Amino acid sequence: MRDSRDYIAQEAAEQEALKREYQRQLAVLPEGRLISSQIGKCIYYSEVENGEKRYLGSGSNAKVKALQQRRMIEQTIEHIDRNLDLMRAYTQEYKPINQEAVLQELPRAYRGEPESITGGGSWENEPYEKNERYSAEGLVHQTLKGEMVRSKSEVLLANLLYNKGIPYHYEENLNLPEGVLAPDFKIAVRSERRFKLLEHCGLIGNEKYARSFTWKMQTYIRNGYMPWRDVFFTFDDLNGSIDTRAISEMMDSYFL
Known about the structure:
The protein is of the alpha+beta class and 256 residues long. The protein has helices at residues 5-26, 62-93, 99-105, 108-111, 122-125, 152-163, 207-222, 244-254; strands spanning 33-39, 42-49, 52-57, 141-142, 148-149, 168-170, 174-176, 179-181, 185-189, 194-201, 231-235. Helix 7 links the parallel strand 10 (194-201) and strand 11.
């Protein structure tokens, strides 16, 4: 199930902008109320304003068209106002279902996560369920923290986190209803008292790798982990280079 609050917020902003445009159009349209009568196959219109009725003619009359447009816009604004009320209520009442959000609501006895996410650093050194899906033989690069990772880019990421004092676990299993994922980094964000995930895509130019990465991204979203809120992505360039300055700035913005 997707966490749709971000999409709801975008939709609300679009409808509010549309409402402002419609209100601008109403300001230049005439006021009044139309009534119609049918004679044979022809429909004729009259305008009622201040209790007085004035014949306008057929639907080709400019005043008829303007009053029809006005009523259509007014009805649309009524729909927008109702939609906005519903979207605000939805956003306020929505409960996220990703594992980390649910854990934060549970009593301490059920969370299983140490209190040290807010400081002290002991969480980082606690034992955890590591990924065993991929061969340990691929762990050939050593980080400043002394652990082994799979690529030079992951070394750079791990060392950036380490130098910034950001606690993390490498390839900790994440149990989801449809299976187990092992994000590259699970990061303790002390300022928000919760965890975020970081995935690195190193071979985006490889078709098989790109398909696997896309599937993984979709799996996160289906399970309530929204990109750039709960799970973050970094990439190698097609030539194999990596922009460590941009990644460092991203970590400062989202992980401290």
